[in-house]
Design brief:
Blueprint lengths: L1 E4 L5 E5 L2 E5 L20 E3 L5 H4 L2 H8 L3 E4 H9 L4 E4 L4 E4 L2 E7 L5 E4 L2 E4 L4 E7 L2 E5 L9 H7 L2 E7 L8 H11 L3 E5 L11 H9 L4 E2 L7 E3 L1
Parallel strand pairs: 3-4, 4-5, 5-6, 12-13, 13-14, 14-15
Antiparallel strand pairs: 1-2, 1-16, 2-3, 7-8, 8-11, 9-10, 11-12
Helix pairs in contact: 4-5, 5-6
Length: 227
């Protein structure tokens, strides 16, 4: 499985010829350096509807003729905008051609901006993505919550992508707890440094994880790892 970081909370995951993009905040993120026009995908997966995650979902889905996989309310919004969508909800899973998606809970918000209004867009989620024989966990935007222990017990998580920015999500100290509870040995930090209020020291975070023999990959945009 190849995992490429496209900045902020966006991951591009490839395995067995299948390509999935999660939370594609690209054209609105100058640190990404990736154009939505260049993204080939078999599905777009969304954790929630905030601008810095919803991003270029509609454009990517329309151009590739692929579905957006999201919680029900957000999926219906995507359909209203002319994209294909597969609606799911928290706790549900579905096997697509070449990959499986399961939505977990996340503690955050989820709203769509239309003009000067913010509209309810369903519950935020985390995503368990299985491709081939490996499962990764994208926590979305969330605080630390104790059911991460259960997620770790019920799934063999090869890698967890965890927010560390603080202010809007859990910070580095909580993310270390999350990694331990998830029983993973590999972590990609997400949702940091994009805005001044979420700047973090990834070297310090990596050192904290290292105390528990957990490998940290603080990737730059377009860097890839293979697990």
């Amino acid at each position: 499985m190849n995992i490429t970081y496209f900045g902020h909370s966006c991951l591009y995951v490839e395995n067995g010829g299948k390509k999935v993009i999660i939370d594609p905040f690209l054209s609105g993120n100058p640190a990404s350096g990736v154009s939505p026009h260049d993204v080939e995908a078999d599905a777009v997966l969304l954790t929630h509807a905030h601008d810095d995650h919803f991003g270029d979902s509609i454009e990517i889905a329309k151009r590739n003729g692929c579905p957006i996989v999201a919680v029900f309310e957000l999926a219906m919004h995507c359909i209203r905008l002319g994209a294909r969508a597969h609606a799911m909800n928290i706790g549900g899973s579905y096997s697509f051609d070449g990959f499986r998606v399961k939505f977990t809970q996340a503690f955050h918000g989820s709203s769509l901006r239309e003009g000067d209004q913010y509209l309810y867009a369903g519950q935020p989620a985390g995503i368990l993505l299985t491709m081939g024989d490996k499962t990764i966990y994208h926590a979305g935007d969330t605080s630390l919550f104790s059911d991460m222990k259960l997620i770790g017990e019920m799934n063999t998580i090869a890698l967890a992508a965890l927010p560390i920015g603080d202010n809007y999500t859990m910070g580095p100290e909580e993310a270390v707890y999350a990694a331990r509870w998830l029983q993973t040995k590999q972590v990609i930090p997400l949702h940091y440094d994009t805005f001044p209020v979420i700047r973090q020291d990834t070297g310090k975070f990596a050192a904290m994880l290292g105390e528990y023999d957990i490998e940290c990959y603080p990737l730059k945009s377009k860097q890839m790892i293979t697990i």
